[in-house]
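Table 4 source record.
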Amino acid sequence: MTTITLSWGDRPIALEDEDGKTFLRIGAALRVDVTDASLDQLDRLADVAADLADHQRDRYQAVDVADQVAAEDGHRFVGVPYQRGSVAA
């Protein structure tokens, strides 16, 4: 199996229809044919996307808490090994 790593950041995610087929477009570089995907697979895709969003919210919240604690202690920077930015998908 080949693994492809794609970083799309905040590029658009959309459905596209072309020649009777349906595609999931993720950014400019990835298009997935979902024409024959079962309802179970599409539901699973939605669940995975929701889990990913929850994971990112938790990461952002952890950074915000560290920043708040540092501010309360009079510090401007806490050495948290995390930076917000583009995320590999």
